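User: Please predict the structure of the protein below. I'd like the answer in C-alpha cell form so I can feed it into my own downstream comparison script.

Assistant: Understood. Taking the following sequence of 275 residues as input:
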Amino acid sequence: MNIGCHVSIAGGIQNAPKNGAEVGCEVIQIFTRSPQGGKAPELTPAAVKEFKTQKSNFKIKEVYIHAPYYINFASANNRIRYGSSSAIRSELERGNLIGAKYVMTHIGTAKELGHKESIKKTVEMLKKTLENYNGKTLLLLENSAGAGEIIGDSLKELAEIIKKVNSPSIVGICLDTQHSFASGYDWRNFEKTLERVDKEIGIENIKLIHANDSQADCGSNRDRHEHIGQGKIGSEAFQKVVSFAQKNKIDMICETEAPGNKKDIETLKRFRDKK
C-alpha cells in the first residue's frame, strides 16, 4: 500500500505531482476544479500530457480525485441534484483523461426530503450519473461525520446505496477515519470496530482510506481533522489502521494542513515500515 496526501493544483494540474513529491507522497489526491463551484478549468491535451510526464518523473503511483464540496444528490432542488450528477460525471471523465484511479464524493443531506426519499433520490441520481459510463476511473462514496442530516455517516447506509445503484462503476467506499470516529466508530477499540465495519459494508469494499486524526470526540458528529497522533484517535490506533491497510493493500491519504502533513506522511510510513 502507498501513502500520500491531498495536494494543490495551483498554477495548473501538472504541478500536483511535484507538490506531492515534496512532502513525501507515493500517491496523491487532488481537486481538478474549485471545490466551492464554478466552471472547471479545461484539461488541454498539453496539460494532460505534462501531468502524466510529471507523475512519472516524481514516481507518483496513483492519483485520486476528490469531488467538489457542493454535491447533493438528495436536494429537493432539481438544479442542484442534476448539477451534482453532471459534476460527478465530469470528474469521472476528467479522471479518465489524467489516468486517475478513483473519484470520491460525499452524497449530500436528507434535510429537505427526509431520509427514505433522500436515499431513493440519491440512488436515482447515481444511476443517471453512471448511465453509459465505461471509463477506467471509478467512483467511491465517502462516509461523512454526520452533522445535521448528512447522508452516509453510517457505513450500512452507504452499503445500501451501493447495492441499489448496482453499477460496476461504483466499487466501494473511501473510509475517512476522522468522519467515522465522529460518527461513533471508535478506532481505539480497533478489533471491535473493524468487526462492525466488516458487518456493515464488508472490508473488501474499502478501496481507499483518508487517514485523519480527530480534534472532536467519538460520536460528536463534528468534522474536525487533526494531525496523526495529536488527536482523540491517537497513535496506537493508527498503527493498527496502517497495519490493516497494509495487509489489505489499501492506499492512505492524509487531508491534514501543511506543513504538518509532511510529518503525518512520515509517521504513517514509519508505522508501515517498522520491522
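That's the full C-alpha cell string. The longest strand covers residues 170-176.
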